[in-house]
Design brief:
The chain is of the alpha+beta class. The chain contains 13 helices and 8 strands. A hairpin with a 2-residue loop joins β2 and β3. α5 crosses α7 (244-256), α9 (285-313) packs antiparallel against α10 and α10 (322-343) packs across α12.
């Protein structure tokens, strides 16, 4: 349905200075949205179908203006800051509407592009917001996961380009991504984090090969990416040559903060769904007690991550403290999916239950994906090490 507006650019209302008014307007829009029921009930057999559905939802939200708040006008947004984006996730959760999967990488990669390559943000971010394209995060390698300083994918200067060779793995949304943000080595192996550079590379560029990875659920949500003499023009450097570590560290604040807050709102939607299921099909006292504990843990993680969102909105550097957010929301996501499994084990494992329930495959796929919640984006063990070293000042671990 159309968005009723009262002022602002392109006929869209200006909520940039009034987040509370933005919340009210978005809630009203979602309450009256004709396709909300279909959005809420959508099921997918493949990751590709889920991404295509998310693109359609983003196009609807973009046309009405609601997902443009919190992003600069220069890149297709309507102004505002991280608070608006946090409210966007809260209101989708309140309406029990699944967050489009594209938002996960948007919250991680978009802010880094805005800060370090505004010319690329101006050119490409609007297409992300309207669902036309999305990007993959190419950091991990077969021998370099959480230790980004060990990366081997290399870029070498050759006249008017950087030539990239190497391999990446576990690239989020890689099978369907339009562009890739790739962390490469431009210095010596001994230079470690000081010799890294961030590049934006088109997924269809000559020399790029993307091989989807089938997860245990059967869905191809990740990919391994190969670069064979891929020529990247200098205007695709994000930040400075040799300055990739600074881009990655800046990006991590948002991966732990904004991404984490979005994930926790998705988890809260899952818990609200489970609550309805437990009421409908019954539950034991032990399960209800466990539900209360998990709910409390999710709410606590939300409160912690909300403080990080406020800090980001104020322009503050979060730094190592964001590792606490990562520990909390990773654990909460995994605990929620385990609770869903235990509450409906027969249905989840054997399919016993309502024969016409189309959500089974979705719920199973979410449980399988949650196995990586405390691993992807930096393992829980690495995060504890960061907290111990940089926040608590504990003695160095003996190796």
């Amino acid at each position: 349905m159309a968005h009723t507006t009262d002022s602002g650019a392109d006929g869209l209302a200006d909520y940039s200075s009034d987040p509370a008014r933005y919340r009210r307007g978005l809630r009203s829009f979602l309450d009256q949205l004709d396709l909300a029921r279909d959005w809420r009930a959508a099921v997918f057999g493949t990751a590709e179908e889920e991404m295509a559905h998310g693109a359609r939802m983003l196009a609807t939200l973009f046309e009405a203006g609601w997902n443009r708040h919190g992003w600069p006008v220069s890149c297709g947004g309507l102004g505002g800051n991280e608070i608006h984006r946090a409210l966007f996730y809260e209101e989708l959760s309140h309406a029990m509407l699944p967050i489009p999967a594209q938002q996960w990488t948007l919250e991680t990669l978009g802010p880094a592009l805005l800060k370090f390559a505004p010319h690329l943000a101006t050119r490409h971010l609007v297409n992300y917001l309207d669902g036309t394209e999305w990007w993959g995060q190419c950091f991990s390698e077969p021998e370099a996961g959480s230790d980004l300083a060990a990366l081997r994918t290399r870029a070498v200067a050759d006249n008017d380009a950087l030539v990239v060779n190497g391999q990446k793995i576990w690239t989020s949304q890689g099978p369907t991504a339009t562009r890739l943000l790739v962390l490469v080595r431009t210095g010596t192996a001994e230079s470690r984090h000081r010799g890294l550079t961030m590049l934006m590379i088109d997924a269809n560029a000559p020399g790029v090969t993307i091989r989807p990875i089938a997860l245990a659920s059967g869905r191809r949500e990740l990919a391994e990416v190969f670069f064979d003499d891929v020529r990247v023009p200098p205007d695709r450097v994000v930040g400075q040559v040799g300055g990739g570590w600074a881009v990655a560290m800046y990006l991590m604040q948002f991966e732990r903060g904004m991404y984490g807050y979005a994930v926790l709102n998705k988890v809260m939607t899952d818990l609200n769904w489970l609550r309805t299921v437990m009421i409908r099909y019954g539950s034991t006292a032990a399960l209800r007690e466990r539900f209360a504990q998990v709910y409390t843990d999710v709410a606590a993680a939300q409160a912690r991550t909300a403080n990080t969102v406020r800090a980001l909105a104020a322009g503050a550097a979060v730094g190592p403290a964001s590792s606490i957010d990562k520990l909390l929301f990773g654990r909460a996501e995994k605990a929620t999916q385990d609770l869903i499994l235990d509450a409906r084990r027969d249905w989840m494992v054997t399919g016993e239950g309502p024969l016409d329930d189309p959500t089974l495959d979705n719920v199973r796929a979410q449980w399988w994906y949650s196995r990586a919640a405390t691993v992807m984006g930096g393992t829980a063990e690495v995060q504890r090490g960061i907290v111990a070293d940089h926040l608590l000042g504990l003695p160095q671990e003996k190796r």
